[in-house]
What we know:
By secondary structure, this protein is mainly beta. The protein is 4% helix and 45% strand. The chain has helices at 10-13, 32-38, 229-234, and strands at 98-101, 104-115, 130-140, 149-159, 186-198, 201-209, 238-247, 252-259, 272-280, 285-297, 307-319, 324-336, 342-356, 361-373, 377-378, 381-382, 385-398, 401-412, 426-437. The strands form 2 sheets. It has a 16-stranded antiparallel barrel. A hairpin with a 4-residue loop joins β7 and β8 (252-259). The protein is globular and about 60 Å long. The chain starts with 9 loop residues before the first helix and ends with a strand. 53% of the residues are buried.
Amino acid sequence: MKLSKLALIAAIACGINVNNLTTASANDINLVSCCETACDCGEPVCGCEPVCEAPEFGFDSACGDFSCDGVLGCDAAPGASGCLDGGSELGDPWSLFGDLGDGITVGGWASVGYHSAALPLFNSRPDEVQLHQAWMYAEKAIDTSSGFDIGGRLDYIYGTDGPDTQAFGIDNDHWDNGWDNGGDYGHAIPQAYVEAGYGDWSVKMGHFFTIIGWEVVGAPDNFFYSHAYTMYNSEPFTHTGALATYNASDDVSFYGGYVLGWDSGFEDNGDSFLGGMSMGLSDRLNFTYATVMGRFAEDKTGGGNNEQGYMHSIVFDYALSDNMQYIFQSDLLESENAAGVQVRSTFGINQYLIYTLSDRVALGTRFEWYDNEGIFDDGGNIGSDVYALTGGLNYRPHSNVIMRPELRYDWVGGDTTGILENDSDDQFSFGFDTIFLF
């Protein structure tokens, strides 16, 4: 499911990930103010949709990829937080396709990784090197500086993350669900949408990633190789429908639309409202609230596994210093079936601390508490708390290469079985992946 999304800090934006993670961004919760504070583009598009998105340490904007050097006409303010002498020693990334003209960009990445122990998340295939994501995208970002404009985006993924990104919300092999290739490998088309905009308004129509949460599916836009329980089990990944964005001011944006439930392709899987707001509370603090409510899933097989309810994600992104970023996320999910019986009742808190040493190296930690009633049935004790502490490193030997080693410790409260490997109460795991961007 989901957004590295909170556009706030040039400190992280101008760090190790500055040059390349932008067009890969999977979500569109944006803030005009990030262009104002970190990227003095001198182009009207910086105040229009799509504005800026900050996947950990890279901004995504209609200005194109931006770094301290300035790319595609965007010049970061000299001496901005985290910018090393106004420039990056990594230089510009190499692109296989790049800008094809008329605002069209084509690119992608490959993520290859290894992890020592299985988790009930994306990384469920341990003790082997695997291709997680072979990803390609084509995008035309809209530019409403001269009035009305239309664009869109198409994404394709193959790898062990493919089946987790399919439209699995309806168990009838519609859209890309069922494009599996054995051995946990598969294909998916997680985004296929058109977007139209005028002034401060834009509307996205089609199949697109959710705006819920902080972690996303696309590997380059996450600091950690592994994922949070909350992201995988309590948040949607994709939606199909329409989502409008209104940039009310430089610091406030609103989102609202109608979607066909959770994780569905172009087939009715429910009726849900998807929306929220993003607000810059200060120069260093950004707040985002995103929600989805209504019918999440409708069982097409007659099994009665319908689900409806309410879910929200609250994220605070705070720049503790020029080099340190703190993220606090809280998710709540309450759902029931058509008969009014509870399906899921979960609550999670994720906290991230990321310290940028240079444009090549950053350190990070993540701590998660996840109350998961309705998710894990561990021998009759449903809803036990799960905890996870992760420490990791991001290293960029080249502007096109990101290496993400991590150590992770998971433990489960109470007398539980069936969540971790070998029904254990706790486990240590090591993971490492390398992302090649092109």
